[in-house]
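Complex 217.
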Amino acid sequence: MPKTVVQLDFDGTVTEDDVSFLMLDEYVGKDWRKHLDEYKTGDITVGAFNKIVFGRMKQDEKTLTNFVLSDPRVQVRPGLKEFVEYCRSKDIEVVIVSNGLIFYIEALLKQQGITGLEIHAAENAFYETGVQVRYLGPDSQEVESGFKEVYTDYLCQKGYQVIYIGNGTSDIYPARKARHVCATADLLEICNKEKVKCYPFNDFFDAIKIVENLKLD
Ligand SMILES: [Mg+2]
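Predicted structure with magnesium ion bound:
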């Protein structure tokens, strides 16, 4: 019997809003969004985008963590802990693969009382000159683009059937490769347009019901 894994996006999926964007608005000023446009049009990679904009963020880890844990705009969708517990009870692994930064993903999971999840996201190092970020693939080599997809390929190669859960435009690439897809927001729209079969969700109680009803191999 193949093993099952949930590949879970973080920003906009686990959280309602994009935590990186909230931090950038707070500490870098609005003009970082012009680089976001460059990333969205494909002129620069997500790796390059992060290096530019986080390179301008001079706050230390403590300040940034306090912001993420206390800003009322940072909201985790209901039912996350229950979803993780449900998956564990069914021997389904949960892996977070995110274009966001590891420090705030870990801090928010800890705040939710969730421990022991595998996280693949941007490695971060805090310097007075700015935050340095980079993505490392399963082979420990730096990945400039297609980070989420690299992990979907890796999980498929390891023989997992992948349930993908995401919200954004960058999630369509891994979603196309997954066995099952749970989608919300932009990803839901794109899946519908591309006729990629998916299950809509608003929170993780929905996700429990979806996974309960999936026909898993
Ligand atoms: Mg997202």
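The domain at 3-213 is CATH 3.40.50.1000 (Rossmann fold).
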